[in-house]
Amino acid sequence: MAVESNLVCKTYEATGDLSAGQFKFVKFDGNVGATGCPRVIICTAATDKPAGVLQDKPTTTGEACLVAIYGETKVQADASLTVGTAIGTSADGQADAKVVGTDTTEYIVGHITLAAGAAGRIASAWIDCAAAGRAT
């Protein structure tokens, strides 16, 4: 069973209906909402720099959403992921394996702490999106 612990979260505004994006990586969309909070959207490219992992299911533009920036969180896997695998985002916001020295245009933001046996499954991962670095 996937777990979460020691999460540091921040509230942002949803760019639209993100209800299908719970436990996926989100990025800033470059806009500020009516409340002055930055808006987030599900990551759309493996080269996106994740701002964190979406914790809830906002349904409308401007709705508050909780984003985990640091700690152990649940993530939706893009493929089978084993404990210790370095991860970043896939093109659809799922946790994707990253290889240092190979995926040099992509960001590593954490590692798997509880495996996912297949794509779409929920794993646990220790993340630090505040200090994301390229896989160089």
Q: Order the strands across the largest sheet as they lie in space.
A: 1-3-2-4-5
**Radius of gyration from the alpha-carbon trace, in angstroms:** 14 Å
**In percent terms, what proportion of residues is strand?**
over 45%
| Termini gap | 32 Å
Structure in words:
This protein has no helices and 11 strands. It folds into 2 domains: 5-71; 72-130, no CATH class. The model has no long low-confidence stretch (mean pLDDT 96). It has 136 residues and is an all-beta fold. It has strands at 5-14, 25-32, 38-42, 52-54, 64-76, 86-89, 95-97, 107-108, 110-114, 122-128, 133-134. The strands form 2 sheets. Strands 1-3-2-4-5 form a 5-stranded mixed beta barrel. A two-stranded antiparallel ribbon has the order 8-11.
